[in-house]
């Protein structure tokens, strides 16, 4: 399993926009934009090509068809905490593709398992054969 070298992102590649948070929160939720939308464009980023390929191959709903990662963070009441949370989730997503998935090696069923399977089929067939009509 090959692991890619760690990467650092430049702040100008990440776009933050403050939005109003959803859900309960009283009057504060109506007047303060404390939630954060993080946008990160994978194809136009400075990430190595291996990272880009693996990220774009992911089946993740946060990645659009154009290759833009959109993360919405609204867990905390403060804008700074939500911004840090979104950035941490982006880094976790990038770290998840840092190591290549392990290659699956095909294996054969053992001789005894094949033998048991055939024996059980023969036994089951014999039971079903006894259910037939009785001939004189």
CATH architecture of the domain at 11-96: 2-Layer Sandwich
**In terms of structural class, how would the helical and strand content be classed?**
alpha+beta
> Could you tell me the number of beta strands?
3
Strand content: 5-15%
Distance between the termini: 68 Å
- What's the Cα radius of gyration? 28 Å
Helix content: 25-40%
Low-confidence stretches: none
Helix segment tally = 4
The overall average pLDDT, rounded, is: 82
Task: Briefly characterize the structure.
The protein has a domain at 11-96: 2-Layer Sandwich (Double Stranded RNA Binding Domain).
Write the layout of secondary structure elements.
Elements: E1 14-19, H1 28-31, E2 35-41, H2 49-57, E3 68-73, H3 79-96, H4 111-129
Antiparallel strand pairs: 1-2, 2-3
């Amino acid at each position: 399993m090959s692991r890619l070298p760690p990467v650092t992102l430049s702040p100008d590649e990440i776009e933050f926009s403050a939005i109003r948070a959803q859900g309960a929160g009283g009057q504060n939720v109506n007047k303060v934009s404390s939630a954060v939308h993080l946008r990160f464009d994978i194809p136009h980023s400075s990430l190595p090509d291996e990272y880009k390929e693996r990220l774009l191959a992911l089946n993740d709903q946060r990645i659009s068809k154009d290759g833009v990662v959109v993360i919405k963070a609204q867990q905390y009441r403060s804008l700074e905490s939500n911004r840090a949370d979104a950035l941490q989730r982006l880094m976790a997503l990038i770290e998840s593709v840092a190591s290549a998935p392990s290659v699956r090696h095909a294996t054969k069923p053992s001789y005894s398992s094949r033998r048991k399977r055939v024996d059980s089929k023969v036994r089951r067939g014999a039971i079903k054969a006894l259910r037939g009509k009785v001939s004189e």
